[in-house]
Design goal:
Chitinase A, domain 3; alpha+beta; 8-stranded antiparallel β-sheet; about 20% strand; elongated
């Protein structure tokens, strides 16, 4: 009898342990509001930066600013009207640039950055998106000053110990040469 009782308990334990696992329920439920709030916050930041940049442009009567379709502003320091070639996909360009805050204080000098070589739209080089897009608007020998909102510059990350988060910047870029790719 004791033997049968042990078998019954063992069989019962076996049946109970074969129960399929139950799904765990999340501790917190996210409704997607974080992304919506982040997008709204970024729109406000951009609007504030845009207003600030437009005030700077309005005060600067010495330069003719152009608004790019990529969300930044620029003016020509040196313009080449004779050359028509602009960098295209795969072209290798050599250029120098600096990064300043909108008050003109140097954050990264042209000397610190050195002569840059960049394969247009095909390089993983650490260039801010504003400079990558701005180069495509230039001709060989031109020098252009760009005003970038923070999302076209260093955005949320900034530059450690040099530039805080969400700070618009200006950059003066000189395009020294364009080496056409074989595709062109």
């Amino acid at each position: 009898m004791l033997h049968k009782l042990v078998y019954i308990l063992l069989f019962s334990g076996l049946i109970v342990s074969c129960k399929s696992p139950e799904a765990r329920h999340p501790l917190q439920s996210h409704s997607g509001t974080f992304i919506k709030e982040s997008a709204e916050r970024n729109k406000l930041i951009y609007d504030e930066e845009k207003d600030y940049i437009e005030k700077i442009i309005a005060k600067d009567s010495a330069n003719d600013y152009i608004s790019s379709e990529n969300g930044f502003w620029y003016y020509y320091n040196i313009k080449d009207t004779a050359t028509t070639e602009k960098p295209d996909l795969g072209d290798v360009v050599k250029f120098t640039y600096d990064i300043k805050d909108l008050n003109g204080d140097v954050i990264l000098s042209e000397k610190e950055n050195g002569l840059q070589q960049y394969k247009v739209d095909q390089s993983n080089q650490d260039l801010i998106s504003g400079v990558r897009e701005g180069i495509k608007l230039m001709r060989e020998g031109e020098t252009v000053t760009f005003l970038f909102p923070s999302y076209k510059a260093f955005g949320y990350y900034g530059i450690e110990e040099k530039l805080g988060t969400n700070i618009p910047v200006q950059s003066t870029v000189t395009l020294h040469s364009i080496e056409q790719s074989n595709k062109n």
